[in-house]
Amino acid sequence: xxxxxxxxxxxxxxxxxxxxxxxxxxxxxxxxxxxxxxxxxxxxxxxxxxxxxxxxxxxxxxxxxxxxxxxxxxxxxxxxxxxxxxxxxxxxxxxxxxxxxxxxxxxxxxxxxxxxxxxxxxxxxxxxxxxxxxxxxxxxxxxxxxxxxxxxxxxxxxxxxxxxxxxxxxxxxxxxxxxxxxxxxxxxxxxxxxxxxxxxxxxxxxxxxxxxxxxxxxxxxxxxxxxxxxxxxxxxxxxxxxxxxxxxx
Length: 249
Description:
Largest sheet: 6 strands, mixed
Helix content: 40-55%
Number of strands: 11
Shape: globular
Distance between the termini: 26 Å
Strand content: 15-25%
Strand order of the largest sheet: 1-2-3-6-8-11
Order of helices and strands: EEHEHEEEEHEEHHEHEHHHH
């Protein structure tokens, strides 16, 4: 899938998704939201794809909502999927953000909507909405206090000031901190590592983590997994000292 705002590229079992509006610092307008939603559909629909990596063109992740487009009446949201077609999407496959340059406002919220974050050391991540009379309503106000200590999250949300990727790593907000320009490559390596694991198990982990009642959902998911072909394959592969061959069944 490809359009003028969002590009996709298959690299092994990973779908690399690139927001491609460098002239607008990859800000999210209606076309980007639609493109991201379509890219995520592509990821979900193909069993050969095991994970996705989300990044931005020309060393900028995303400056967030395109305010000029919003003033013209464009919506950067997709009904049922949230900001950028991502922040409320219920994906079964892992999605990794590869952050270079700016991930501000809605751009940071796109990263927070991913399962893992890789950021270059000199990238900038922040939620400046309060400086514009707004709040980080694309998941930032809800997600950030669950990821880092309360008072640190409140500093992000109340001051609107960004931090570097290096500082985000110190806070435990990102999984990997890389030299400038290396975030996508490291994210792709991480995606390959995830792809070594059983797809049904990965989907179950994601479902349980986001559930309102994790214990109840966990019981249901364990029952399903124990009846799957993949769990038998995993056990046999361990006993036979070989790499498993997952089918997702």
